[in-house]
Amino acid sequence: MNSLSLRSTAVLAALLLGSAVLPSSLTAQQDSTAVGTVAAPTDVAVAFPVVKVTPASPAGPRFLPVGTTNPMPATAPAQLRYSNSMGNGPSLAMMIVGGTGIVVGSVVGGDGGYRITVGGAVVGLIGLLRYLR
After folding, report:
1. What is the DSSP letter of 24?
2. What is the domain extent for residue 103?
3. Distance, CA of 131 to CA of 94 (rounded, Å)
4. Is 123 in contact with 97 (CB distance < 8 Å)?
5. Helix 110-132 vs helix 89-108: crossing angle, to nearest 10
6. Cα(126)–Cα(133) distance, rounded to whole angstroms?
7. Mind listing the pLDDT tens digit of every residue in the chain (133 residues)?
8. How many domains does the chain have?
9. Is residue 102 part of a domain?
């Protein structure tokens, strides 16, 4: 017998022995004296108090402030409509790709990892320079 066949036979024997000796998962959580029996339900009368709620205002959705809020005008000023970072997408993407290159190069290691790390640092710095301009 080769070693693979011997290992397969050993694993099969362990599984068969374990399933025969160890308790099954279906009966593991039950009481061993009452296997297969179910307790009869008992009638229990529970009295709940009746509470009648009358709303102070008509039904429907309500918008209530939660916590400390500042009222905002209906239309935001023109300076708040657009972010200052409009058009910086490629620069931010280059910084992210550069940081990812540094991490991947550090994980790879060796001479190739060193080259990936340096390349990621260069791409990240170019993205940072474009972002700061």
Report:
1. P
2. 86-133
3. 9
4. yes
5. 160
6. 11
7. 576 677 788 877 877 767 666 666 655 555 555 555 666 666 666 666 766 666 666 666 666 666 666 666 666 555 555 555 567 788 999 999 999 999 999 999 899 999 999 999 999 999 999 989 8
8. 1
9. yes
> Residue 44: inside a domain, yes or no?
no
Q: In this structure, is residue 23 part of a structural domain?
A: no
Residues with Cβ within 8 Å of 98's Cβ and at least 6 positions away in sequence, in order, are 120, 121, 122, 123, 124, 125, 126, 127
Q: Which amino acid is at 51?
A: V
Q: Residue 104 burial by CB count (10 A; 0-12/13-18/19+): exposed, middle or buried? A: middle
Spatial separation of the C-alpha atoms in residues 118 and 112, rounded to whole Å: 10
Task: Determine contact, residues 104/77, Cβ cutoff 8 Å.
Answer: no
Is 37 among the domain residues?
no
Residue 120's CB is within 10 A of a number of other CB atoms, namely: 20
Structure token digits, residue 121? 């640092």
